[in-house]
Amino acid sequence: MSVARPDVSKLEDALRALEDGTYRTLGVSVGSKKIAKPGLKIVKKHMQLIPTLFAPPTLPHYGTYTMICLDLDAPFISWNPLGPVAHWIHTNFKISQQHQRELQAAEPPIARLVAAGPPPLAAPHRYVVLLYKQNPDLPIPSNLKAKGSTVTQRT
């Protein structure tokens, strides 16, 4: 039985659009390390902390947002039947007016951050943080946050 590889071609197109400036990008800091541009390699030990996210300047400050962080290459770039894997899902982000447009959420995440940890001998993985405007008419069920998630649910 063979496992079909997921089609990540749309994600590849999105990555190119991020790199060439077609799409707006989030500001991301991990500890004192600021990720200045898409494609920057970050040492694995720095990716054990929860990132701080900053909204692009043109994003409306009055909205509520959902963030999803994906590992496109799990478990290996050359063999990724599990990918993309959600490393973090958090809803109800608001843009802080006091902290350089930092995205902040008062509620716990739907899926807590799983720190970056490609297997030994694996090439560096590509991680994408996506931000979506939440529809205020579609509330997130409260029991969804209480359940937690398994690796299978994150693929």
General description of the model:
- The protein has 155 residues and is of the alpha+beta class.
- The chain has one domain (9-135): Alpha-Beta Complex (Phosphatidylethanolamine-binding Protein), CATH 3.90.280.10.
- It contains three helices and seven strands, in the order αβββββββαα.
- It has helices spanning 9-19, 142-147, 151-154, and strands spanning 27-30, 33-35, 52-54, 65-71, 85-95, 103-104, 127-133.
- The longest helix is centred in the first third of the chain and has 11 residues, at 9-19.
- It is globular and about 45 Å long.
Mean pLDDT comes to: 80
Shape: globular
Which strand order does the major sheet show?
A: 6-5-4-7
In the CATH classification, which architecture applies?
Alpha-Beta Complex
CATH homologous superfamily grouping: PEBP-like
Pfam family, one: PBP
Protein name: PEBP-like protein
Any chance you could write out the topology, listing elements then pairs?
Elements: H1 9-19, E1 27-30, E2 33-35, E3 52-54, E4 65-71, E5 85-95, E6 103-104, E7 127-133, H2 142-147, H3 151-154
Antiparallel strand pairs: 1-2, 1-3, 4-5, 4-7, 5-6
Organism: Talaromyces islandicus
InterPro entries: PEBP, PEBP-like_sf
Pfam family, one: PBP
